Amino acid sequence: MAGAIASRMSFSSLKRKQPKTFTVRIATMDAEMEFSCEVKWKGKDLFDLVCRTLGLRETWFFGLQYTIKDTVAWLKMDKKVLDHDVPTEEPKTFHFLAKFYPENAEEELVQEITQHLFFLQVKKQILDEKIFCPPEASVLLASYAVQAKYGDYDPNVHKRGFLAQEELLPKRVINLYQMTPEMWEERITAWYAEHRGRARDEAEMEYLKIAQDLEMYGVNYFAIRNKKGTELLLGVDALGLHIYDPDNRLTPKISFPWNEIRNISYSDKEFTIKPLDKKIDVFKFNSSKLRVNKLILQLCIGNHDLFMRRRKADSLEVQQMKAQAREEKARKQMERQRLAREKQMREEAERTRDELERRLMQLKEEATMANEALMRSEETADLLAEKAQITEEEAKLLAQKAAEAEQEMQRIKATAIRTEEEKRLMEQKVLEAEMLALKMAEESERRAKEADQLKQDLQEARESERRAKQKLLEITSKSSYTQSMNSSTTALPTDLPSFNLISESLSFDFKDTDMKRLSMEIEKEKVEYMEKSKHLQEQLNELKTEIEALKLKERETALDILHNENSSRGNSKHNTIKKPQAQGRRPICI
Length: 590
What we know:
By secondary structure, the chain is of the alpha+beta class. The protein has helices spanning 2-17, 43-54, 105-108, 112-127, 135-150, 171-176, 181-192, 200-211, 290-310, 316-414, 420-490, 492-495, 498-504, 512-548, 558-569, 573-583; strands spanning 21-27, 32-38, 62-68, 71-74, 92-98, 220-226, 231-236, 240-244, 254-257, 261-267, 270-275, 283-287. It has a seven-stranded antiparallel sheet with strand order 9-8-7-6-12-11-10, with helices on one face. Strands 2-1-5-3-4 form a five-stranded mixed sheet, with helices on both faces. Helix 4 (112-127) crosses helix 8 and helix 5 packs across helix 7. The two termini are 85 Å apart. Its main location: membrane. This is Merlin. A 1,2-diacyl-sn-glycero-3-phospho-(1D-myo-inositol) binds at residues 76-79, 294. InterPro entries: Band_41_domain (IPR019749), ERM (IPR011174), ERM_C_dom (IPR011259), ERM_FERM_C (IPR041789), ERM_helical (IPR046810), Ez/rad/moesin-like (IPR000798), FERM/acyl-CoA-bd_prot_sf (IPR014352), FERM_2 (IPR035963).
């Protein structure tokens, strides 16, 4: 009885200990994941679980986004997941996205997974036209996207039409020019071929380095009204706060860098920006919803914290991450160099093998031709010998007939002719016999000379036969040598794994000399990058000039016109923000 009560108590206690759970679906830029979460979990618990699953350590750039009544919101770290205004049905869906953007992607993004997530998000924003990108820059960015996906360009693999199903350019750019998909592909492929040797992470970083200079990169826009009721746009990004006209999202009317803002606050729907310089008026504006003010404040606090963090020494965690990233980069670079050397040696071995095979085939053809020539020479020699024998027999027969004719002539002369008529007839026969004998003698002499000539031709044919046999022997000896060379060359690829032994003996414990050498290489790469940037700008201008004739002016959007005006004035994203500082602050009047 007591045992039954104890077992029921233990079962009920186990039943009480099982926590209640709910299902969450997390969507990244290229995958989806589902997790079972406890009802008591806070936003940080779910966020940390996602980061651990992805292997992401640079967590400060990212957040979990969801939508409330057509308004974007971010999961708060210190608040329970179920306490947020999320739909009741399961699975509850959140999007894992970059919430804050770096000022300099190359310096701040350390992990390869971080770079990849930023690359996918920025690429989608450009293709969806949430970030304005001029046509020539769109083509260049597309070429880096192709390099990241397909690797090095190979004309035998990447044939005409291989990008037909790829979405690489914004529809606005495609519609702006009278160009076929084949013409766009040709221009993208021309730049793609120049990126040979870049790994996926390098191509994605080049993409981000170009994209971060676009005016709308990393800017979150919000519709606001000033005290006068004028409709404006507020832009929040890594550099500060910017005020725009609703029709011009490229060039701000005025900017407040984070280091010149003293305080940001809101009360209900009214938002207040207090500049550090007390001589400058406080800027106030109203947003449509209280929830939007909360979101603006979140973005302001996060971007300001990162702005100040960048201007301090790196934390121990970041230093360790950067050191690991440098070591990993050096290791990958050494591995790529080793693979490149092996690939080069294999290609050289294959070229040598192909050359030897080609030479062997050539020698075989020469041997076949020589053999055929020898057979023809033997046949010719046999025919000449047979002809000479026939001619010799004919000469003997003619000589015999000539002798018989001579005998007949002598017999006729010795015969007595009694009558004069018989004598005359006999003389005539004798004369005819003499002429016949003379002709026989001449024919015999001619046949004798022809027999001599045939004998001489026979000797020459036999000499040609002897030379042909000698040449065949030489070719046979060469082919045997070539076959031995071919077998030794064919064995080369099996010996190539010996490079693995060399690579395995390498230690990845980098010494000071290695790091100094790596630093020198990085400095050299920086110089090369500056030269490439100049060359890149020239290429962009060249492409812009080339396709300008195909532009349809009537299809230009307002942002296209504004971008062209900014380019003609020499305005860019960075110098626009710095202008107010150079001109001196005055009271704000917007």
